[in-house]
Design a protein that fits this description.
This protein is α/β, with parallel strands linked by helices. The chain has two domains: 2-116, no CATH class; 121-235, Rossmann fold. It has 13 helices and eight strands. The strands form two sheets. A four-stranded parallel beta sheet has the order 2-1-3-4, with helices on both faces. A four-stranded parallel beta sheet has the order 6-5-7-8, with helices on both faces. α12 (209-221) links the parallel β7 and β8. The longest helix has 16 residues, at 182-197. The protein starts with a strand and ends with a helix. The relative contact order is 0.15.
Length: 238
C-alpha cells in the first residue's frame, strides 16, 4: 500500500525521532512510504489563533504538497482533525476545493490507520513499563480515535496499561491557549498529570506530541516522577 507521510511542524522541529519511528512502523506493516521534503505546516496554528486568511495560504501549500489520490498518514490527531474539520470550508468555491475534499477523505492519524485501514493491532513491540493514556482532544473529538491506541498498546509485550480518571480531559495546551491563558493551562495540566500519577504509571502516552510537550513541561518544572512518550515511540520498539 502506498502512503504519504505527513510530519507536523512541531515534530519536525522538536521531536524528529517520532517522525522516524512513524516511518519505521509504516514500513513494518508493509507500506510503500513517500515523503515530500517540501512539506511544511498544515495551517492549524494560524487558524486556531483566528488568522483565517493566513491559515488558508499555508494550507494551500499543504494541498499542493500532497496528493488526494493516495492515503496520507500523520502521527498527530490534532493536525489530521484540523484537515478533516476545516479544509473543505477554507477552500469552498475555490479552484482547490475538489482536491481539498479528496485530501480530507484520505488523511489518517497513525493509530487510526493501523487499526482501521491496515487492520493491525500487534506490531510485535516490547516496552517494559506501566503506562497510562491521554486522549488528545484532536484525536478523540475530531478523529474519533478512542479504542485504537488502546488496542495497540494492549498488544505490546511487557506493557501494563492503566486507565486514569481524567484520560479524556483536555491537557490545557490548545496551541496559543496555553500562551494566552497560562494560569488556566497550567491548572489543566496539573489535573491531568495528577490523575496519571495516581495510577502508579511510569509513562503518560498519547498520539499528540504537542499535548505531551505541554504536560512534560509541567512535569519537569515540578520535578515529578512521570515520563511522557508518543505512542509511535512505544510501538516502534520491535
Amino acid at each position: 500500500m502506498k502512503v504519504q507521510l505527513f510530519i507536523p511542524c512541531s515534530i519536525d522541529q522538536y521531536y524528529p525521532a517520532v517522525g522516524m519511528n512513524t516511518l519505521k512502523i509504516l514500513e513494518k506493516v508493509g507500506c510503500d512510504v513517500s515523503y515530500n521534503e517540501n512539506q511544511s505546516c498544515c495551517g492549524q496554528p494560524a487558524h486556531h489563533a483566528g488568522f483565517t486568511k493566513e491559515s488558508r495560504e499555508v494550507c494551500s501549500k499543504f494541498i499542493n504538497d500532497f496528493s488526494g489520490d493516495e492515503i496520507i498518514v500523520a502521527p498527530s490527531g490534532s493536525c489530521v482533525g484540523f484537515i478533516r474539520s476545516n479544509v473543505e470550508k477554507l477552500f469552498d468555491n475555490s479552484a482547490q476545493h475538489n482536491e481539498a475534499k479528496k485530501i480530507q477523505a484520505n488523511i489518517y492519524e497513525l493509530t487510526e490507520f493501523l487499526t482501521k485501514v491496515v487492520k493491525v493491532e500487534d506490531l510485535g513491540a516490547r516496552f517494559e513499563a506501566k503506562v497510562t493514556y491521554h486522549d488528545a482532544c484532536g484525536s478523540l473529538r475530531d478523529c474519533g480515535t478512542k479504542e485504537g491506541p488502546r488496542k495497540l498498546l494492549q498488544q505490546v509485550k511487557g506493557l501494563d496499561l492503566i486507565e486514569h480518571d481524567e484520560c479524556e480531559t483536555c491537557c490545557g495546551f490548545g496551541g496559543t491557549f496555553a500562551t494566552n491563558y497560562e494560569a488556566i493551562a497550567t491548572g489543566m495540566a496539573h489535573t491531568k498529570v495528577s490523575s496519571a500519577i495516581q495510577t502508579g504509571a511510569e509513562y503518560l502516552i498519547s498520539t499528540d506530541m504537542t499535548c505531551l510537550m505541554h504536560l512534560d513541561g509541567y512535569i519537569k518544572k515540578n520535578n515529578l516522577k512521570l515520563k511522557t512518550a508518543h505512542i509511535a515511540e512505544v510501538l516502534s520498539r520491535f
